[in-house]
């Protein structure tokens, strides 16, 4: 080979190398599993990975949720100026605004925020444990089990509002235990949890229909409104159990949720990395059931929030793995925005919030199925 041909070959190889570099870097970036910076204390005994983009996205979602909450508190049949809303929340006594804000609107808005956050975290945990974007409490039968417990109290025992909430919580817990025990065989497997959950959910759905068809007309109408999911008439007495449970369970879920990314690598890999697989999975399962149960007890089986919030949060934060904080913020934003739409934006007047989430969630589910179909899944 002549010297000229060798120089031309080197130039050609260099051009090819230069053309491949961006693609190669992008490929490496696509294969990246975890992102962010690791923060350690001076002694090195504690460390945490902080994803700046994900943290910023969570803050933005929370700010949007709070902004919609303030607007919802200020608007209604009796509009209250926004400065008066803020002064009332800060403790200043303003005649008229005090009763409207603190007694009528604030319990409903806080219920929407905390129910949305609880459903978002519960859905994120179940989707990560089952490794399936459809593995939410709605699809594996937990909210249907909660509905069965509530319907028994409403139509059979004729109980009070507190007893209905307790019945929903018990129904959710009993259903989750049944699903876990039936799906357990030398460990809990994700596909068995989904299949068993779908089967039990179908049976409980038939049982709920049987109860409604055997009830009187007025009782059946009241039960059907509860089954849609509503925030109407929520008070401080109904908010306190929800608030207490969420404040206790969420920190535990966040602490154990740091193992979700390693559980996604498989049981053997997670065990090799030092994760107690069955114990971690059991604690997260209990946390997810508690959050779904208390949220359903507070507002009824509100559809699609637990399904859509985790996936939307992942797309907004572009996080590499499970982002429970993002799911909580997205769930709170979705539900408080849906509640405002259900109260103010529809021309037919106020409707239960479950109708608004059903409309939004149905559109999201269609988009998700088309997206997965195009990817060949």
UniProtKB/TrEMBL annotation:
Q: Which residue ranges run through the membrane?
A: 54-74, 109-127, 139-158, 164-183, 239-257, 283-308, 320-338, 350-370
Where it mainly occurs, coarsely classed, is membrane
* InterPro entries listed in its UniProt record: ABC_BtuC-like (IPR037294), ABC_transptr_permease_BtuC (IPR000522)
Subcellular location, record wording: Cell membrane
Name the record gives this protein: Iron complex transport system permease protein
- Keyword terms: Cell membrane, Membrane, Transmembrane, Transmembrane helix, Transport
In the UniProt record, does the keyword Cell division occur? Answer: no
Q: Pfam families recorded for this chain? A: FecCD
Entry annotated with the keyword Signal: no
Q: Outline the segment boundaries, as ranges, of region: Disordered.
A: 1-29
Its membrane topology is listed as:
Multi-pass membrane protein
